[in-house]
Amino acid sequence: MAKNNLHEKNLRMVQLAMIIAIMVVLQIFGAALVRVAITVPALVLIPLYIGSAAFGKKYGAILGGIFGVITLILGVTGFDAYTNGLFLYKPLATAVICLGKGILAGFLSAVVYEALMKLFKNKLFPTALISAIVTPLVNTGLYILGVYVFFKEYSGFAPDSAFFY
User: Fold this and answer.
1) Cα-flanking dihedrals φ and ψ of residue 36, to 5°?
2) Rg of the chain (C-alpha set)
3) By C-alpha distance, which of 44, 28, 157 is closest to 80?
4) Residue 113 in contact with residue 131, Cβ under 8 Å?
5) What pLDDT shows up at residue 98?
6) How many percent of the chain have pLDDT more than 70?
7) Nearest-angstrom CA–CA distance, 51 and 55
8) Between 99 and 131, where is the model more confident?
9) SS3 for 140-165, per residue?
10) Residue 3 pLDDT > 80, yes or no?
């Protein structure tokens, strides 16, 4: 039995390493090749969701943390211009936003996936379809909330800005 357990642990470690490698490649190439104005679409959310659904809450949070670290590194190095601007203005707040949104996106997508699997009695299609929406919603929602909280004056959320008119 111990040999089988070791095999499962090794298999999970290799699977997680593959997902992490895909996340790194998608985030770097997404930042280099795919841009919408100055922002970079988070293509990395696809493997983040798949890993969260496949491995559960703990690994979803870990994968989300890795996503947050990648995002922060791209911002610090200037590869992601908008995150770089936030980092230059308030480094600690930028780190909190990047890490927090990533960890919670991975964790909550796994929570919703597990809950929907019970609700839909292990039917994969409706569960995957609905729970896949959670990852970008949490990521983007927490990003906007973080920018609103920490960067009101920088982001156009100030009461006298055009955002409120």
Assistant:
1) -120, 105
2) 18
3) 28
4) yes
5) 96
6) 85
7) 6
8) 99
9) HHHHHHHHHHHCHHHHCCCCCCHHHC
10) no
* Contact between 40 and 30 (Cβ < 8 Å): yes
Spatial neighbors of 3 by CB under 8 A, at least 6 apart, are none
Q: Which two tokens stand for residue 148?
A: 């609103």
pLDDT at 126: 87
Two tokens, residue 126? 């409706």
Q: What is the pTM of this model?
A: 0.84
Distance, C-alpha 74 to centroid of its chain: 14
3-state helix/strand/coil string of 84-118: HHHHHHCHHHHHHHHHHHHHHHHHHHHHHHHHHHH
Task: Give the span between the Cα atoms of 71 and 41, in whole angstroms.
Answer: 11
Closest CA to 106 of 157, 35, 55, 34: 55
SS3 45: helix
- pLDDT tens profile 143-159: 999 999 998 876 555 55
Structure tokens at 79: 């590869």
Spacing of C-alpha 11 from chain mean position: 24
